[in-house]
C-alpha cells in the first residue's frame, strides 16, 4: 500500500507526535486499541495518525510513502483504503483522501508513545 503525505501534513504530524518512532494509519471507530471514538456509525469513516515507539499487532503492514517515514497499518484498516491514498493538511486539519473521495476531513492524531490506555469498548460498539 502506497501513501502520499504532503509536506504540510508531515510537519503537522511531527509537531503533534514529536516522540514517535513509528506512525500508524488507523481507524478511530472503537475497533482497535488506539481508538477513543467509536460506534458502528463511524466504521470506515473516521481515521487517525497514531504515534508509537513500538509496533504491536495487528499493525504490521508497512505503507511505502514519499516522506520515507515508518508508516504502518493493519489488515482491517487497509480494507478501507483504495488507490491514491494521501494525507494532506487543509484548514488546520489533517485530511485523508484517495483518488475518488475525501475519506476524513478532520483526521486526528493520537500520541501513544507512552503506551495505550484501555478504550473501554470491549468489542461492543454502539452509536
Q: What does this entry look like structurally?
A:
Pfam families: Fe-S_biosyn (PF01521). It comes from Fructilactobacillus lindneri DSM 20690 = JCM 11027. InterPro entries: ATAP_core_dom (IPR000361), HesB-like_dom_sf (IPR035903). The chain is mainly β and 127 residues long. It has one domain (2-111): HesB-like domain (Hypothetical Protein Aq_1857, Chain: A, Sandwich), CATH 2.60.300.12. It has helices spanning 7-16, 75-78, and strands at 2-5, 22-27, 47-52, 61-65, 71-73, 85-90, 93-97, 102-111. Strand 4 and strand 5 form a beta hairpin. The model is unreliable at 118-127 (pLDDT under 50).
List the helices and strands and how they pair.
Blueprint (H helix, E strand, L loop, with lengths): L1 E4 L1 H10 L5 E6 L19 E6 L8 E5 L5 E3 L1 H4 L6 E6 L2 E5 L4 E10 L16
Parallel strand pairs: 1-4, 1-6, 2-5, 3-8
Antiparallel strand pairs: 2-3, 4-5, 6-7, 7-8
Distance between the termini: 30 Å
Share of β-strand residues: 35-45%
**What Rg, in angstroms, do the CA atoms define?**
13 Å
Fraction of helical residues? 10-25%
Question: What string, H for helix and E for strand, traces the elements in order?
Answer: EHEEEEHEEE
Q: Which regions have little confidence, pLDDT < 50, spanning 5+ residues?
A: 118-127
CATH class: Mainly Beta
Q: From the coordinates shown, what is the CATH architecture?
A: Sandwich
Question: CATH fold name, please?
Answer: Hypothetical Protein Aq_1857, Chain: A
- Average pLDDT, rounded to a whole number, is 86
The secondary-structure class comes to mainly beta
Shape: globular
- Can you tell me the number of structural domains? 1
Q: What oligomeric state is this?
A: single chain
In this structure, how is the largest beta sheet organized? 8 strands, mixed, barrel
CATH superfamily: HesB-like domain
Strand order of the largest sheet: 1-4-5-2-3-8-7-6
Q: What's the helix count? A: 2
Organism: Fructilactobacillus lindneri DSM 20690 = JCM 11027
Pfam families: Fe-S_biosyn (PF01521)
Protein name: Core domain-containing protein
Domain Core: 1-110
